[in-house]
Each structure stands twice: as C-alpha cells, then as structure tokens.
Amino acid sequence: MSPMSKDSSLLVRDADDSDLPAIQNIYAFYVRHSVATFEEMPPNVDDLLARRKAILEVRLPYLVATRGRDIVGYAYATFYRLRPAYRYTVEDSVYVADTFRSQGVGSALLSAVIERCEQGGWRQMIAVIGDSANAGSIALHRRFGFNPMGTLKAVGFKLGQWVDTVLMQRTLGEGDRTLPR
User: What's the CA angle centered on 103, arms 97 and 9, to 5 degrees?
Assistant: First the structure.
C-alpha cells in the first residue's frame, strides 16, 4: 500500500471482499440520486462481488481509497467493449463517497487506475461520463489527460430527465505508436 495523493492519510489499495458493503453503499447513492450512472436499481453486495471477480479475472484493477478505516471511494477498469478488436482499450469508473468529493479522492483513484492499466499493456482508456453537466468528472478526466471525443445527446432517461453521455479518451503507455506485443 502506498499513498497516492498529497494527503498522507489517503491510501489507495486493491479492494478485497470485505470492502464490498462500503462500495455498495457508495454506489447505491449514485444509483438512487444521480445520473452519473445509468443503473436504476442499486446492485446488492453479491452482484458487486461477482462484478469485481470478473474484473480481476482479466487482470484489470479494482481499487479502494481509504482514510483511516473508512472507504471513501473506489475505482476500476473494465474492457471498453467485448469484441476482440477492442482488447487493448479499457473504460474507467470512479466513485467517491458523497461527503468526500473535492478532497483529492477521485484524483488518487484515477491516477492509480491509469498506472495499473499502463502496466498491464492496455493502450487506450475511455471515460463514459453520465451527464454532460457533470463538471466534476469532466474536469477530473481533463486533469489526467483525457480529451473530449463527443457527446451522445439524450441517450439515457433517468430520474425523469433525458441524460447525455460525454466520451473522453486518453492514451495509455505507448498508445498507437507501436504494435501490441
């Protein structure tokens, strides 16, 4: 475990099974109260355990941020699409406990996910950001070198409103400068 931010009390580490109840609580908030995710019913802990297992089986990162004993956020990467031609492209997801937003947690998590994906040989990372008004997530991704690729207008309907998604992209490691090994 190593600190991933200027705040030495903030630690980013691999998530383990015992973290899933806290992760479920963080994610359930976003499912119920925001358009950051298009999921409409919060998954239960068993569902999240299965999702995490699938991510780890393909050697992608699934991380938590802690302050003391509290889990204050989590992040992971998944394959962007399942067809074989997309095998070098991943998509990131970052969720921060509502009371810990704007405190460097998202930055620490995204930095660690990017680093792990670069070590794993992936070449592109995509952010699919729910809601074009999600200034915090858009700004976070810009700080880490993501470029806006476009906005899909009104592709989701949640909480009584039409919702856009913003696509952002960043090169990982050697990107497309070399062929994969």
Answer: 90
